[in-house]
Design brief:
This protein is an alpha+beta fold and 297 residues long. Helices cover 60% and strands 12% of the residues. α1 runs antiparallel to α4, α6 packs antiparallel against α7 and α7 crosses α8.
Length: 297
């Protein structure tokens, strides 16, 4: 059964409530185990609400998403570490400050991630991406269809561009997912403030953003995109620990022609993006018809 917006946020609220009660019991077991009758590594059972939520997520392949994988890993780390501390206490060891804080750190991070998922589910139906504040795929396709209809009526051109942050996986792997989120938020804000008033930016998913350039032929669109590319390259992104990152992005653009469907136009922009990536990254490329490309080769 799929996790609906209401079910997703509601079941995670249960997960949070259950874990708050679990932490209280864990504290009693850790510090007053004998007196409270909570001795041994299994004195405080693992809450079951998250297990149920995880089964639903796996049933619809949601668990394959990196953010969900991270949430599941945090849950496993939290309970493995909490059980280890109770095992040591039962063996006669005194709970160290480092061990205690390690459990609390995992708990805080797990609850924080659950609450982020709650917010994501609550706005999923609004057409807004909860991380970047950009419109998501639902709003994107509606706007592309409207722009295509206007183009067919008036003949006034428009373009679609895909922006993909360069080596974004390396940012996540090197600095962590929080740093990756900060980069995405900063890049989205930079693009959204840099496009023309009539244009719109949408988060496609991951680190890819689609830009709809209305009432613009390819030369004008390329000018806008080159300015955005330069703005992103000059953008400092400050991490939680004070370090500053600089990132670049590649852009692929395509101009609509009569009769083209939005999906096909996005495919052309994606082909141009592929050329930008393989041409060295941090550049803007436009889609070229195969015949023209063959003549220029």
């Amino acid at each position: 059964m799929p996790i609906s917006q209401t079910q997703g946020s509601g079941s995670l609220a249960t997960v949070i409530d259950e874990h708050l009660r679990w932490l209280t019991q864990w504290h009693r077991a850790a510090f007053f185990g004998a007196e409270a009758g909570l001795s041994g590594p299994d004195a405080v059972p693992m809450p079951q609400a998250f297990i149920h939520w995880m089964r639903q997520a796996k049933a619809q392949a949601l668990a394959l998403q990196p953010a969900v994988e991270r949430l599941i890993a945090l849950h496993e780390q939290l309970h493995r570490l909490a059980r280890l501390m109770l095992t040591r206490i039962h063996a006669g060891e005194i709970l160290s400050l480092a061990g205690y804080e390690a459990v609390l750190d995992r708990f805080d991070e797990f609850i924080q991630q659950c609450r982020r998922f709650e917010r994501a589910f609550s706005v999923a139906g609004s057409g807004i991406d909860p991380l970047t504040g950009l419109r998501n795929r639902t709003g994107m396709m509606e706007e592309l269809m409207r722009e295509a209809s206007r183009f067919h009526r008036s003949g006034r051109p428009f373009c679609v561009a895909l922006c993909d942050l360069d080596r974004f996986k390396l940012v996540n792997d090197t600095y962590g997912h929080d740093a990756g989120d900060r980069v995405l938020v900063a890049a989205a804000a930079c693009l959204n403030s840099g496009i023309r008033d009539m244009d719109e930016a949408f988060r496609m998913g991951g680190e890819e953003i689609l830009i709809l350039l209305k009432d613009a032929g390819l030369p004008e669109a390329l000018g806008v995109l080159e300015r955005l590319r330069q703005d992103l390259a000059a953008l400092p992104v400050q991490l939680a620990d004070g370090r500053v990152l600089h990132v670049t992005a590649s852009f692929g653009a395509a101009e609509a022609d009569m009769g083209i469907e939005p999906d096909r136009l996005i495919e052309r922009a994606d082909q141009a993006l592929y050329a930008a990536k393989h041409g060295g990254r941090n550049r803007v490329e436009c889609w070229t018809p195969p015949a023209a490309a063959a003549l220029s080769a």
